[in-house]
Amino acid sequence: MNMPDQQAIVFGKYEHLLGVWKNADAESMSGVAVVMVTPGMLHHSGPFRLHVDLANELSTIGIPSLRFDLSGIGESLGVGVTGRSIDRAANEIAQAIDWILKHTKSRQVVLFGLCSGADDSVHAALSDERVVGVIAMDGCGYRTPGFHVHRFIGHTLPRILRPSKWMKLVKRIGVDDNEISSSLQPGTDVREFPSRDQSVQELKQLARRKVQMHFVYTGGVGEYFNYAGQFTEMFPELAGEPYVSSHYFAAMDHVAILAEDRAVLVNHIVNRVQSIAVATPTKTMDSTEVPTGA
After folding, report:
1. By the 8 A CB rule, do 37 and 120 touch?
2. What CATH architecture applies to the domain 6-142+197-279?
3. Of 141, 209, 240, 264, whose CB is crowded by the most CB atoms within 10 A?
4. Boundaries of each Serine aminopeptidase S33 domain copy (predicted)?
């Protein structure tokens, strides 16, 4: 099937989801495509066009991709929106995979998601065997003893030793807090992680299915993840598991706002996707196979 290098598509049960399909510039190296899941309320371009940069780089190594808006975000209509958002996202990711199988030669997908998109990607993979890999950026995290040690050394102790902090405290003694005006504070994040035990069971389930999972964390989520060995300490049950890996970018912020950080991140993700694609047996669709939703 001849397709443009890049095209906007409308798909889904209600023809309500909008995405951008990026063909591979190089000869396709496998039957694997990448689906990029929107983070939070950001649209399909990703934060600071991260998804665009990623799609372009993937294309150069023979891997096509689809970046799309979940319902009610960006240009996708909020149609049929019921139930938990994470379940709705999984259903819409499945519809995106349906489109890929129906209209392209790709037969399997790797999901990439940042923040809530990471949560949605793991959840979607649990119920869709067409997913052969998940790259989750700043996904779920759980504070460990090591987390508290690193937080004290890197955050609390320097503040205790800073004279200016003590001077501010002295100046505040005897001052009525009602006399101090303050700006509007940001609200609390409603994103919720499953329990640690549930996460372990879900990751083990995916590993048994040989889904390759790579977890990327940044310094932007220091409220729950702050050192390179924390993933292993969070999930000791997964130690030595060949289908699970992690990497920590301590100096990178949550959305890779700096161009040089995005370049490093994109290169890291592309290399990981390439390794997943190489390790994934090519699957072809026989004459009796009909993609879901076709």
Report:
1. yes
2. 3-Layer(aba) Sandwich (3.40)
3. 141
4. 33-137
